UniProtKB/TrEMBL annotation:
Keywords: Hydrolase, Transferase. Its EC number is 2.8.2.-. Belongs to the sulfotransferase 1 family. This is Sulfotransferase. The gene is 25497455.
Length: 324
């Protein structure tokens, strides 16, 4: 029985009941909605978002595959955009708030009943540029986001590490709620079938990639590994893309380095604001900071799993320009 479905209004419930349903990643029911897999509660939020959200040209949307570096990219985007407001690093909001408290998700925080701490967010009067987060695939974003001049920064990550990060995250949440955890093997099969939140991952990546090629000024397509390799280059690239490039003076004053350090894994993980406290009752803030490394999958996946996922990546993404 899908507990989430019980809490949903009649009209939406009927729609959900008409959709293909599978038991997927993290012991959850998933429905195939608008070409991707998601949960009942999310469908309700996504429909509300699609019907109501009005984008402004100045908006910035951080779009991601879950566990691909959302927290990091939200922090970087917030720090880059607001660098003139918080030039002193002593009073920076990222020192006292988790990035998810500063950059709300459409589907998880704004258009939902379980709104974490954003219940009273006044969308019309938010300070501009407004920054939002989302895991929703490109084709299912609200029409006004696609049609306005607002900007989207997208990040994905190699599927091996994304899977391992996701599996650890979901199991911590399950343990926290005294729910059964799922085995690595079971969840791996679901992941490979695309049966996880906003899966399959390859369609998610390809949707944003296609649009970033068609409209490079609208969508910036990034990979976690590239940011890890050269964060300085990417911080500058993000600022240029957002129309707020760093000046020579800022560069020589160390503004870029300050942002990089403020948003670094080590710095963020060590902050009290990220070590304790809970988002939305079940997400301990510390769960968003695990290892922050490339290649931790080696400690989890068997050779046959690596072989299987490699083949899927090859089959689905070869020729697209996305490689890991
Ligand atoms: P690991 O589980 O591999 O450590 P998301 O933010 O999309 O939920 O992704 C979480 C992943 O990003 C986790 O990966 C987490 O440790 C890592 N992460 C969080 N903050 C980071 C940061 N500032 N820099 C680099 N990686 C970070």
């Amino acid at each position: 029985k899908d507990e989430q479905l019980e809490a949903i209004g009649e009209e939406c419930k009927n729609l959900i009941l008409s959709l293909p349903k599978e038991y997927g990643f993290g012991n959850q029911y998933f429905y195939f909605f608008q070409g991707f897999w998601t949960t009942a509660a999310q469908i309700q939020s996504i429909i509300s978002f699609q019907n109501h959200f009005q984008a402004k040209d100045s908006d910035v949307v951080v779009a991601t595959v879950p566990k691909s570096g959302t927290t990091w990219l939200k922090a970087l985007t917030f720090a880059i955009i607001n660098r003139h407001h918080f030039s002193s690093l002593h009073n920076h909001p990222l020192l006292t708030s988790n990035p998810h408290e500063l950059v709300p998700f459409f589907e998880l925080n704004i258009y939902t009943d379980i709104s974490w701490q954003f219940a009273k967010l006044d969308l019309l009067n938010m300070i501009e540029p407004r920054i939002f987060g989302t895991h929703i695939p490109f084709h299912s974003l609200a029409k006004s986001i696609k049609e306005s001049n607002c900007k989207i920064i997208y990040i994905c990550r190699n599927p091996f590490d994304t899977f391992v990060s996701y599996w650890n995250f979901m199991n911590k949440i399950a343990l926290n709620q005294s729910l059964p955890t799922s085995t690595l093997e079971d969840d791996f099969e679901k992941y490979c079938e695309g049966l996880c939140h906003v899966g399959p991952f390859w369609d998610h990546m390809l949707g944003y990639l296609k649009e970033s090629k068609a409209r490079p000024n609208k969508i910036l397509f990034l990979k976690y590994e590239d940011l890890k390799e050269d964060i300085n280059f990417h911080v500058k690239r993000i600022a240029e893309f957002l129309g707020c490039p760093f000046t020579q003076e800022e560069e020589s004053n160390g503004v870029i380095e300050n942002i990089i350090n403020l948003c670094s894994f080590e710095k963020m993980k060590g902050l009290e604001a990220n070590k304790s406290g809970v988002l939305g009752k079940i997400y301990d803030k510390k769960y968003f900071f695990r290892k922050g490394e490339i290649g931790d999958w080696i400690n989890y996946l068997s050779p046959s799993m690596v072989d299987k996922l490699s083949k899927i990546i090859e089959e689905k993404l070869s020729g697209s320009g996305i490689s890991f």
